[in-house]
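Thread title: Can someone regenerate the structure for this chain?

I was given the following input by a collaborator and told the matching structure tokens would be attached. They weren't. Posting the sequence so someone can regenerate them.
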Amino acid sequence: MLEHEIKKTGYTAQQLMIPETIEQILRKNNFQTTDDLYSAIGFGGIPAAKVVQKMREEYKRRTKKIEAPAVGSRHSAKNQGGGSGVIVEGLEGCLVRLSKCCRPIPGDDIVGYITRGRGVSVHRRDCVNVKNIDSEQSENRIVNVSWENASPAERYCADLLIVADDRTGLLADIINIISTMKIPSNAFNARVNKNMEALVNVGVEVSTAEQIDELIAKLKNVSGVISITRSLQ
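Best answer:
Regenerated them for you:
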């Protein structure tokens, strides 16, 4: 309903539904979440046209302060939680979050998805959640993103799933390689499936995709390892 009202004004949701504007509307109307706002609009508690008018006013105010970006221009958009290092095409000052479902790392092929009230969520392009978005739902919400120069001090979480023959000393060999590479590990879990294969989930903290690729290459040399993939949550 809100998106339909926005289209009637000639604007796009990408232009008007900026997190800062949404937060202002929530505070002004004593709403706790965007779901509260949508419910109020749906039940007639607040006209959608009134909400869109506020969004238009904020959009005009923002565009007066800065020059409108040229088509195809790029703007750095940092994650307010600590610096995502991601550039979002055509958007400025938006909140950027690295998706927890696929945990993108600098060097990964990535895509941005404009969420409702939470800015741009950055996913690996092979993330199943991105592939499952239908064309109607993704209209005007998929944006091009790219990595900014990554800082070696910045750490990103990655999850690995190692499938191997179940044998004595397997876990010790895996831990030894991770330790030798001086890569911090924040999770470690192992179990055996019905085929008597060891399934080892390892959570590590790395700076780049190249670093995780190097780790995977070394782990593949461990005796009995069948496959290693970056798992999705």
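Residues 65-82 have pLDDT under 50 and may be disordered.
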